[in-house]
Design brief:
alpha+beta, Aspartate Aminotransferase, domain 1, 2 domains, four-stranded antiparallel sheet, 11% strand
């Protein structure tokens, strides 16, 4: 069973309640997938087998164990990623070793057969609602209109919301004037904060 000494160190530095949980989970992973490769990713123990397989982490008051293809492993139960193992405080909260080993074997089999996880469902992007006064000002300046149209939806939304959130007519007009000026110069709403 090849191990990574960095995981030994990670477990040793974990809170006392977490050590037996992490040791148990590590053993489960090796039992379920003897050819697993250990590493540290994003500062936490990770296990690969023909791609990312699973990982675990210890926090101040709980541990987490997650399978990269958790939604496929757990089926339509609604569990994804950490599934039912996102908030573990003691070994007693984990299911039987046999069940956990079965989950790891199933995840390893998915990787072995090249099964891809379904992409996350993306929420539909809300259309950008451009306030009428801003639309009118854009029509008067072809350069600003062209720059606005070329902006990503998020950049158009930033300008539109900035103008719409103005509480007074004077503030709204100042923001419209600034928007037209900046757009004509090819600047995004938050151009001052962009990396150069």
């Amino acid at each position: 069973m090849p191990t990574d000494k960095r995981i030994d160190t990670y477990i040793a530095k974990s809170k006392d309640f977490a050590k037996p949980i992490l040791e148990h989970l590590r053993g489960v992973v090796h039992e379920g997938c003897p050819d697993v490769v250990e590493s540290i990713k994003w500062g936490h123990p990770a296990f690969d087998y023909r791609g990312p397989l699973c990982g675990m982490a210890a926090f101040n008051a709980h541990c987490r164990f997650f399978l990269w293809k958790g939604a496929l492993v757990f089926g339509k139960s609604g569990h994804a990623g950490a599934g039912p193992f996102g908030d573990v405080h003691s070994l007693a909260e984990l299911p039987s070793r046999k069940l956990l080993v079965g989950y790891v074997r199933k995840a390893a089999s998915l990787n072995e057969h090249g099964v891809k996880a379904a992409p996350r469902e993306r929420k539909p992007v809300k259309p950008v609602v451009v306030p009428v006064p801003l639309r009118a000002a854009l029509k008067k300046n072809a350069r600003a209109q062209a720059a606005f149209d070329a902006c990503s939806p998020s950049h158009r939304r930033e300008y539109a919301e900035w103008v719409a959130e103005a509480k007074t007519d004077d503030t709204r007009q100042r923001r419209i004037d600034t928007t037209i000026e900046w757009l004509a110069q090819g600047k995004s709403r938050n151009w001052k904060y962009e990396k150069k």
